[in-house]
Amino acid sequence: MLLLPVTPAAAANPIDLTSGFYVNPNSLPATWARNNPGDSRAARIQSSIGSKPIARWFGNDSNIGSTVANYTGAADGQDKLPVLVAYNLPGRDACGGHSGGGAGSPSAYRTWISSFAAGIGTKPAVVIIEPDALGDFECMTQTQIDERLGMLTYATQMFQQKSPNTYAYLDGGNAGWVAASTMASRLNSAGVRNIRGFSVNVSNFYTTSQSTSYANSVVSNLGYAARFVVDTSRNGNGHNGQWCNPAGRRLGVTAQVGGGAEMLLWVKTPGVSDGNCGIAPNTPAGQFNPDLAIRLIDGT
User: Fold this and answer.
1) Where is the active site (predicted)?
2) What are the beta bridge partners of residue 265?
3) What integer best gives the mean pLDDT of the chain?
4) For a tag site, which of 8, 92, 128, 273 has the least CB within 10 Å?
């Protein structure tokens, strides 16, 4: 009997494999609303934020493979498409400083991101790779930049090899940060051609039209038809020149396919602080604040 070599299944479109975006029942706003039923804000927060599809962020976790497998498995069990954020680069948030941390070394990061991709496996998913990683260069040495580009390229290779039904997007900053031509060069150096494309406006406030215009300029400079997604979680009122818990912002349109990009997504969790700053000076980065959430609902 002649045994033919086994070839991997062709990659499939995760949007076509699922019936809408996954709503995480344990997101920070949903959990807060569930745990505070007597609070007058709870029902509004659950209705406007907690019940919506929001990306889940994953950081340093020695069991990241099983954590990701469980999360994507829960979504797959509902035939829904989960959105995940890989956020564990060593020296992350080099310029902003509010969300520092990450893996202890490049080798630890490679182990982590490899396990992350393997945890998804063949399940359908969307992954945003390392927000801000390609925007922070002005605070880094050339050696640090080269090291970071190597880690990001490795990350793209892991999703390409281990997560065939995942659309992965390297983060490409936002419309007000790095020139499109510069960002295109950085994306190319970080392995963007190994994956679906790039993301813009993660955790920021630029309008969808501003973000798509910027992203299309990046695509023009990349020289090939890369796809992109836009974070619309807090861009309903646009940008006011501040990035850290600014007042007067509003929720944007909820997750959808299309809308001027491949997808519009809530990548940042609305109501989660950017740091000890702005209208939440006593709320550390990554912590949910119900007052921030209500202000985003009301646009105040």
Assistant:
1) 132
2) 231
3) 95
4) 8
